[in-house]
Amino acid sequence: MSSIEIFNNSHRKLTPAHITFTAAPYNAKLQVSSTTWLNDKIAKKIDDQKGIHYVAEQPVKSGETLLNEEPFIRHFEHADRFKYCSYCFRSISICLSPNDDIVAYDDSANNSSIEKTDSDSLIECRRGKDCSWMHSYCSAECEERNWTEEGHSWLCRFPELCDEDPTVLLALTGYIKSRSFGYDTLPGLVSNREAVNTEDLDNYRKSFMKLAATFYLSEYVVNNLLTIYLQIKCNSFAIKGYSSIDELYGKERYMLPETLVQNRDIIHYGRGIYLQASRLNHSCKPNSLASFGSMDEEEMNLYGSDRSSNHGSNPCRLTVHSVKGTSLSAGEEITISYGPLATRQSRSERLAKLRNDYYFDCQCTACADTQQDPFLDTIYLCPKCKEGKMYKNQARCLQCGEKPDWASIEKIENDAYRLKSKGDFETALKLQKSIYHGDTLNVGETLDKIAQQYCLQGQFGKASQYVKQSLQIIQKVYGKTSIEAAEEMMKLATLYYNSGQANEGLKHAKATLIVYRILGLDKTQPGDIEELKTMMTLLTLNAAAFRT
User: Domain residues for 115?
Assistant: First the structure.
C-alpha cells in the first residue's frame, strides 16, 4: 500500500472529535484525582530536595489505611481479554451463570483462536465487529467509561495501532485525559526528563512517529506526549492481584483447595497512574505498602464481600497502608517501595535499577548506609566451623579464618540446581544445606517445592512440616509482618486445616488473620479472610469434638 493510500485511509477514519483530543468525563462532577486521604493525620509538604511528599502530622498506627485512590488513567494488559473487564479489570468469568457457554473467537489477524464467553455478563465495544481491539466489559458503564475517559473512542477506528508500544498508547490516553482538565501533561507529576540522555530521548520520540502520522500531531503535541511517556515510566503502578479462590476452584467445595499451596498466581492486570500515590517517595525500607483490590464504603454497603458478582473487590483501587511494626511518628515521611527492597536486593542492584528505571539516585536510609552488611549475598556457610556466614568468593571466614574452596562450593551449588530441574528436590535440599546457612531463601524455595509434591500426593500433614520451615526462613528474611510472610502463612493454614491438625491449625489461622489485618489485606483480599474464618470455625468444632 502506498503512502498516499495510507494517508487517505487514516483521513477517512478521523472524526471531528479528533481535532480537540479531549475526553468528556463520563461523570460531569469527576475530579482530576479520585483520591481519599482517610484522615487528617497526613499533610502535604514541599521542599527543593524531595519535591511534593507526604508526612504524618500525628502518630499513625501500624496497619492503618492512609489513602484510597482510583487511577487517573489505566491500560489493560492481561493476555486474556475475555476473562477480565478492560476498564475496571474485574473478572468477568466468576460472575457467569451455569447456562453461560464458552465459544471460539477467531482472531484471524493473529492467526489464533481465543475462548470467549457467550454471556449477558460480557459486553463488547459499541462498534461490535468493527472494533479490532478485543475489549470486553463487565457492564455498560465500564464500556462507556473506557470509550469516553480512557480514549478508546479515539483508537477504535485504527486497528493498525493495536500492536503499538503499550506505554505509547497510555501516553496518548494521558494526553487526552489531561487536556480535558486543561493540562498538556499529567498534572503534578515529575518526568525527570532532564536526567534522560539525548540518545534515549530521541529513541522515545521515534516511538511516536506512527501515532503522529495517524493523527497528524504537531511537534508541540508530540513533545507533550514524550513528557507524558517519561512521567509514566517514573510514576506508573503495575496493577496486580491474586486469583480469587472462587475464581480458581468454584464456590462448591467441601475442602479448602490443596492447590492453593501450588499455584495461587499473581495476576498482572495492567498499569495505572495515580496522581496522589505517585507523589509518595520511594524507600528501600518503606514504612507503607501500596496494594490493590479494596472496595470503598459504598460498595461494601451495597455488595458486602461477594466476589462472585461484578461488583466485588475493585482491582484498580489503590490503597496505601502503614505496615511498620510500630506506629509512624509525627513528622515521619510516608514512603513506599517502587520495587527494590533492602531485604531482596543488594545496595548496588537497587541503586542501578532505580537509576535506570526512574532516573534518580536513591538516598533512603538503607542506601545511605554504605557499611551495611550484604545480608542477601551472605548465604554461604563456612565448611569448617559451620558458623561463619559468607558471601560468594569471600577470601576468608570471619569466624575461624578458613579460606573456602569456592570451586567445590560452586560445584555443589550447580549439582543442587540440576537436581531441582529434574524434580529431585529432597536430594537437592541436602546439598543446599551443606553449603548454605539456614536462613537462605534458596533453601526456603526448595522446601516449598517439596511441600507441593507432598500436597499433590494428598499428604497434607507432611507438606505442612516443610511449609512451616519455609515460613521461618521468610519471616527471618522479610519480617514477621511482611506480605511474603502473610502469603506463606496462608499456605500453612490451608495445610493445617486439610490435614486435620485442629489445635495447631486454629492457633496458626488466628495468627495469620492478625498479620493480614496489620498489612491491610483484610480489605484487599477479603476472600482469604473468609477462608480463614471458615477454617477457624470448623477447626474449633473439630477441637471441641476431639476433647469430648
Answer: 3-31+73-238
